[in-house]
Amino acid sequence: MTSMEHDRWARVQGRLRSTVGEDVYTSWFARMDLESVQGESVHMSVPTRFLKSWIQAHYADRVLSCWQAELPEVHRIDLTVRSAMRCAPPVKDAKAAGDERRADRVTPATMEARGAGPMPVSANHEALGGSPLDPRLTFDSFVLGRSNTLAHAAARQVAEGRRGDPVMFNPLYIHAGVGLGKTHLLQAVTWAGNAGGERKVLYLTVEKFMYGFVAALKTQTALAFKEALRGIDVLVIDDLQFLQGKSTQAEFCHTLNALIDAGRQVVIAADRPPSELETLDDRVRSRLAGGLVVEMGTLGEELRLDILKSRVAAARAHHSGFDVPLPVLEYLAKAITHNGRDLEGAVNRLLAHSKLNAQPVTLEMAEREVRDLVRPQEPKRVKIEDIQRVVARQYNVSRSDLLSSRRTANVVRPRQVAMYLAKTLTLRSLPEIGRRFGGRDHTTVLHAVRKIEALVGKDVALADEVELLKRQLQD
Ligand code: ADP
Ligand code: MG
Fold first, then answer.
1. pTM of this prediction?
2. Which CATH number is 183's domain given?
3. Are residues 404 and 363 in the same domain?
C-alpha cells in the first residue's frame, strides 16, 4: 500500500468509527483490513465468515458511504474472509486488556437483566448454550494422585478466581489420554466457578462450539452467540482435538483471541499437546501453547485404588447393602489399568450383580464380572518426533537428514522406515505425516509405507530392524 492509500484507509476507518460509535467499531471492524482499491471497487477482508456475514447484513451501506466520502468513484465493496489466520496478536498490557473489558456493553449483568435472573447452575448453564453437565463430576469427587496434582491445582485456581482478578495463565490447556479425567476436571471447574453466582463459566464440547457457530450463521443470530460469549468469564472447551474445518478454526481462533485479549479465562482439554494438533494452524497452536500446558499422566495403581474406593463410597450412599471388600478393590486396581471409565464400569457391574442376585461381592465374582475389562496394556502413544529421533540414531543419520530433500540411499531408506513407523504406530493421517517429514506429499508417504511393507515380507534383516525399532519406541 502506498502511503497515500494508507492515509486514505485511515481516514475511512476514522469516518466509520465516528458513524457507528467506538463500541460497534471495536466489535466488528477492528479486524477489517484493506486489501486493494481498483477503479470503482474496494476489496477488504475480515478474519472470519461470521464477521463477514454480519458486516454485509448490517453495515454494508455505511461502509460504502464512508468510502465514497473519501473516494467518490467507489461503487462497490467486496468483503472476503482472509485465509491466513492472524492468531498471534501483539501482546497487550494488562491495562489495555482492562480497558477493553470495561468497554464491553454486554456484561453478565445485562444478560441477567434480559430475564435470565438467578437460576440453578445447570439450568443457567444450558440456557447460555452450554453442553450438559454431569452433577457427579465435581472437585469433591475428583481423586488426587501423582499424575493429576498439577492439573488439579491449576483447575482449582481458575475455578476460584474472582471477576476482575488478573488471569495467571491463559489459556489453561490440559491434555491426557482417554478416560484420565479431563472432562471430570473441566466440569468441576464449571460447577465450582458458577457456584458463587458472581461469574459465568461456560462449558462447551468442541462440537457444540462448532455447532453454535454454524447454527448461529444459518439463523442469522451470530450476534446472540457472540454476545453470549462476551458475557462469559471463563470459557471451557472440551475435546479440542475434534475441531475441524478451516473456517471453524478461524472462528475458534478469533474467539480465543477476543476472550484472551479481554482478560477472560479460557480452559481447554484435548487428548494431545498443542504441538500435536496437526490439523491446526501454526498460529493457533502457538497461542494455545502460550498459557499453561499440563499433561495428566496415566492413573497409577494407588490412584486407581483411591478412585475405586470413592466410587464405592458414592454408590453406598444410595445402596446401603453394597460393600466391596478391600482385597477385591486391590484386585481391580491392579487388573484394570486403562482408564477411569473402566474403573467406573467395574463398580457399576459389581453393584448390579450384587443387587440382582442379592449376593455379597467376592473376589471370584469380581474376576468373572470384569474379565473383559482386563485388557493387555494399551500400546503407548508414540510421537513422530520420537520415531524420527530413534530411526536417525539407528541409521546414524541426523533428524534433519530425514526431513531434508536429499535422495541418497543412506537417507532414503531410513526416511521410508520412519514414515512407515509413523503410519503404523501413530493415528496420524498420511498428509499429516507428510507435513511432519519436511512437507512431503501424502503420496510420497504412501509410497514409503508400501515399499517397507513389501520389503519386510522378503528381507528378514530389515524385518528384524523394524521390529527392534518398534520395540524401542513402545517400551
Ligand atoms: P476423559 O475426559 O479424560 O476421557 P473423564 O473425565 O471422562 O476422562 O473420566 C473418565 C471416568 O474416570 C469418569 O467417570 C471420571 O469420573 C473418572 N475419573 C478419572 N480421573 C478421576 C479422578 N482423578 N478422580 C475421580 N474420578 C476420575
Ligand atoms: Mg472427555
1. 0.60
2. 3.40.50.300
3. no
